[in-house]
Protein: Adenosine 3'-phospho 5'-phosphosulfate transporter 1
Organism: Oncorhynchus mykiss
Amino acid sequence: MPSFLWRLWPGLVLILLPSTLAADKESSLLQDWHDVWLFRFFLNVLGYATIIIPGYFLIGYFKRINYLETGRGICYPVIKACVFGSESKTGLLDDVSIAPRNDADSGSSARQAFKLVFCAAGLQTSYLTWGVLQERVMTRSYGASTPEEEGERFKDSQFLVFMNRILALTVSGLWCLLFKQPRHGAPMYKYSFASLSNVLSSWCQYEALKYISFPTQVLAKASKVIPVMLMGKIVSHKSYEYWEYLTAALISLGVSMFLLTSTTGKHPSTVTTFSGVVILVGYIVFDSFTSNWQDNLFKCKMSSVQMMFGVNLFSCLFTVGSLLEQGAFFDSLAFMTRHSEFAFHAVLLSVCSACGQLFIFYTIAQFGAAIFTIIMTLRQAIAILLSCFLYGHAVTMVGGFGMAVVFLALFLRVYARIRMKAGRRAPQPQVQKV
């Protein structure tokens, strides 16, 4: 890089990140450049590129030489599965590892009620614990023996993403081995698109907590229905009902009311900064792409657990490669050895994430997406209350009203979707035989 660009770099960063770096001097900025989230983001992307670009040329090479017809040898099955797949497309089958849902009668009322309580308790426990630990790891210090000591704070969000993905990969791999799955049809490399966007969205999710409060993050997640709809139109060419646009507008209104009336507290995570908003936008965009790409990928013959395995496989590959290239992998392991409490939190965080994904699949299979959405919407509301109680986040009256508007809109979406599906399933009037 030319020398004049190095001299301009501190000024450019100060312009891009006024909320986080305005008080830093240029000398300290050059020394602590790794603390700038935008720089870390580009480092992560460069690390992923060192895996994606060679993979792109390899896939192109195997297709160009028609390896499916000419290839042979010990590597042939692996290359065929990764590059070509079985090319069998069907509609999304029910997950064969879980009993399919029967709307008419899937057992006694007491048994169904027990299953519902089990699913709700599993989802709430997994994701409420996950949310509390996520805020604890990203916003609090470790190793302080007295309240006056500052302690040491963990800063590498990418390592937490890797921890989550490696455990989810292990759980989904064991599930695929223990329970029969449909024959896999999609080329493995197609999972890399959803995996990359999923890794970036997860990184943004963790990183945002350094700049914004957890309640703000939860409400921002609720508002992702808006970019999901936009991505649906762009990627999948979907059309939407009028009530979907109405509830999206209500969600936008409620989130805006909360963000504009957020109060400043002593802890930096209670301040909605410019950097935090930018990172949240990145999270919403990447997550919206992930869900729409997975919807298209489900057109190939696969189960939900196979999807979980494929996405997490590439996520582990991307994150561990980037961590090793940056030298951050062993630094994070050293942090774990210095602070056993952090090691426990990181492992428990990953366990909750992996178990939560399995509870998602089981709940949708047993009770459908509507019941699942209601449970998760309640979880978001409880998570905000729990965060305010444990970490002392202040919410104004207008902000509380904005939160109520958001959750009202979410429940309206569920209600309208149920009514619409009930109307479609309404039986046709029978013609009386004479």
Summary: The mean pLDDT is 80. Residues 340-391 form the longest helix (52 residues). Residues 132-140+155-212+304-366 form one domain. Residues 101 and 368 are 8 Å apart (CA to CA).
